[in-house]
Write a sequence for this structure.
């Protein structure tokens, strides 16, 4: 019997799992895919928002600024990659200025300080590549950027290290309500828990339906992105937004934590919760919209495109509450700014559990620290070439684009979470994230995964069960996935 069962190992589920691992309780984390962070948490903007956009009086407004303030310490403990960069919301007219003033007013209500509108001259001074058509901008100094999938992996690793049990490829099929606990039926058997936390992302409405709750529905909203090569992120110093619309914060321009330039997303309501395809027409639109902020991009530096699906709720806000079914807690509809809010969401869930009767006593042996897998290196081309063809050893270079070593890959495979896909190692080490997109290192990574897991190479997949095991080819048309 588990004290708490968490369904869904995205940023919300893993944040809650890590927070619960501080207490002397038996916690189970269930995930239907073959790895953590395989949903929206691996395919988003990676922005730690300032907290001024989310409407005051909503859970989003309450939790986004609180979450923002927790990132520095969290990164110091878990080393997943976070940097405070600041942000600008660009204005191009007097009408836009009025909207920016409204954002400041809303931000103040949310407890956000330090917001100010700066004029064209100052905007161009701090961001030389900004469009000459900009007239003003809202400056927020505490906006940041993070590596979202590395964050989730770090949270999960630390939770597992501190006693949380993680079961991958366990899809919840049904939940039965017993007298004083729940019986959770998965494709791999049955588990029992006193409390259930529904953090299943785009499937959280389906999970809620299993216990007779039909209070909300999830509308999948797809956003597509264009990613440029590492180093091109220096085109901007801050996260560059446009004035938000009813559909969201609009197309942004930002550096990723590792220095790639990224533009996107659009916002498209879809019916298929698994549709992460991209298409040229939408990507062309994103580039066109982004050129309102930065007038020219070097499209030869594009390396790939991708999309993610946000779990937008019919309530238009986060849903974080103990439901009418005692002990069943919904944490649903966590779209933007969900990544930013996730540390604060976890604390809110802890309070809900306490109020619901769960006795939580802090452990004395909790270890909050987790070392980074990625080791930053600046090797010359000659140094890289010398380390490519040497015998197997920790220093051997496996991915030349990102200078990833065999030692880093082995480390990523031995952190308490079984990794059997090339994509899983890609997200842990960046092997395959460079210009050639894995064309050089894919086979090498596969061999190491097979060796460390003592499994045949043909069992190592590209992106999990059902994905191709054929080697990747360099994409000539980078707008095609």
């Amino acid at each position: 019997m588990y004290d708490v069962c968490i369904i869904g190992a995205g940023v919300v589920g893993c944040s809650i799992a890590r927070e619960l691992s501080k207490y002397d309780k038996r916690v189970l984390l269930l995930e239907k895919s073959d790895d953590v962070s395989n949903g929206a948490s691996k395919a988003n903007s990676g922005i730690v928002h300032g907290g001024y956009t989310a409407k005051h009086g909503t859970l989003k407004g309450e939790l986004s600024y609180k979450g923002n303030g927790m990132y520095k310490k969290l990164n110091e403990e878990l080393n997943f990659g976070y940097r405070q960069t600041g942000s600008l919301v660009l204005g191009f007219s007097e009408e836009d200025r009025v909207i920016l003033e409204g954002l400041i007013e809303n931000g103040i209500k949310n407890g956000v300080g330090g917001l100010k509108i700066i004029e064209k001259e100052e905007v161009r001074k701090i961001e030389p590549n900004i469009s000459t058509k900009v007239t003003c901008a809202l400056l927020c100094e505490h906006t940041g950027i993070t590596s979202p999938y590395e964050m989730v992996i770090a949270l999960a690793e630390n939770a597992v290290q501190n006693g949380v049990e993680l079961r991958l490829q366990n899809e919840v099929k049904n939940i039965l309500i017993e007298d004083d606990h729940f019986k959770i039926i998965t494709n791999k058997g049955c588990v029992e828990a006193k409390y259930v936390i529904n953090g299943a992302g785009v499937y959280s409405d389906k999970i809620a339906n299993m216990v007779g709750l039909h209070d909300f529905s999830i509308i999948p909203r797809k956003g597509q992105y264009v990613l440029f090569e590492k180093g091109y992120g220096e085109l901007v110093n801050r996260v560059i937004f446009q004035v938000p619309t009813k559909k969201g914060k609009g197309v942004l321009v930002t550096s990723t934590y590792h220095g790639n330039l990224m533009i996107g997303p659009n916002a498209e309501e879809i019916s298929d919760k698994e549709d992460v395809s991209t298409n040229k027409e939408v990507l062309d639109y994103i580039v066109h919209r982004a050129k309102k902020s930065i007038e020219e991009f070097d499209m030869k530096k594009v390396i790939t495109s991708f999309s993610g699906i946000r779990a937008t709720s019919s309530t238009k806000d986060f849903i974080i509450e103990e439901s009418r079914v005692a002990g069943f807690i919904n944490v649903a509809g966590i779209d933007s700014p969900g990544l930013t809010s996730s540390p604060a969401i976890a604390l809110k869930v802890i309070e809900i559990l306490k109020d619901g009767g769960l006795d939580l006593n802090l452990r004395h042996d909790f270890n909050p620290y987790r070392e980074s897998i990625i080791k930053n290196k600046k090797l010359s081309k000659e140094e890289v070439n010398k380390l490519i063809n040497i015998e197997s050893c920790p220093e051997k270079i496996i991915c030349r684009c990102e200078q990833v070593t065999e030692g880093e890959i082995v480390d990523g495979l031995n952190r308490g979470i079984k990794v059997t896909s090339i994509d899983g190692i890609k997200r842990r080490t960046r092997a395959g994230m460079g210009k050639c997109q894995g064309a050089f290192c894919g086979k090498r990574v596969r061999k190491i995964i097979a060796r460390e897991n003592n499994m045949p190479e043909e069992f190592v997949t590209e992106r999990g069960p059902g994905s191709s095991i054929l080697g990747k080819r360099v994409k000539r048309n980078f707008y095609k996935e």
In short: DSSP finds 13 helices and 22 strands in the chain. The first strand starts at residue 2 and ends at 7. Residues 274 and 413 are 27 Å apart (CA to CA). The chain has three domains: 1-81+143-216+314-372, 82-142+219-313, 381-459.
